[in-house]
Amino acid sequence: MTTLSPLTRRLYKLPHPPIPPSSSSHTTLPSFLAHASRTSLPLTSTTYIGTHYEYTIQSTLRSSALLLHRTGGRSDAGTDLVGTWHLPAHEHPPRVLVQCKALKTKLGPNIVRELEGTFSSAPVGWRGAGVIGMLVSPREATRGVREALTRSRFPLVWCLVGLEGRVRQVLWNERVEGVVGGGLGVGVVYHADAGELGDTRDAEARVTWDGEEVPGVDEVVGRMEDMQRRWFELWDVGEERWEEVLGVVERLFPFEKPLLYARDGRVSGLNEEEREVVRRELQRSNSTT
């Protein structure tokens, strides 16, 4: 599963995901399935169903530009997944806190209040402004849930995702648009087996931006790595000095990062004079070693 290296996260000012507890015996769906088989974990247990659903959601929502990490452990403070939402035209992707509710029972407004409570106990890197809460469940949002979502003072998203991983509905309140802007939308795709009338059971919701389907995480990561390479080429050094370059830039220009969506094709927010300051500092550092 494609992800970001620690260097890339640091370069793009992205929070580092929480470290899984040392007691954790799985970090991916395949390793969890192996663990479940090894320990004879009942397939009908809440632990199996809940954990399997969390890993399914982590994988499924990659197609919606969500790069998520499972928190794991009993001390997760109610948050199952954390990550970043890499929507087009966003140089600084909003951070997200995700709760997965693989429940058979009807969901009530209390789950919205529960999600709101995770904001105050969120992991380091997922606190403060620009954080979105997300509820994911295979159950439909009741009228009470939708009303609680609308009333909430927090930016919240609701996703209806089946246990098999098909996204069927995405809802959000106005406060989400205050974080990401007004381009967010949802389209519907009918699969080949849906029939001529478009059987809603085989429909899949797709997140869009300005009417276009958002790129998946693999495409996003590829773009970030390409811009990262172009950004480091500005400093005329080999890859063995990338860490050094980043340290110098962080010290001199702490807000600098590669630009992903500059209309004029620029990869850096620094002007030539500022870039020359960095080069001179690198030359000075190289001459003293």
From TrEMBL:
<feature type="region of interest" description="Disordered">
    <location>
        <begin position="1"/>
        <end position="28"/>
    </location>
</feature>
<keyword id="KW-0496">Mitochondrion</keyword>
<dbReference type="Pfam" id="PF10356">
    <property type="entry name" value="RRG7"/>
</dbReference>
<dbReference type="InterPro" id="IPR018828">
    <property type="entry name" value="RRG7"/>
</dbReference>
<dbReference type="GO" id="GO:0005739">
    <property type="term" value="C:mitochondrion"/>
</dbReference>
<protein>
    <recommendedName>
        <fullName>Restriction endonuclease type IV Mrr domain-containing protein</fullName>
    </recommendedName>
</protein>
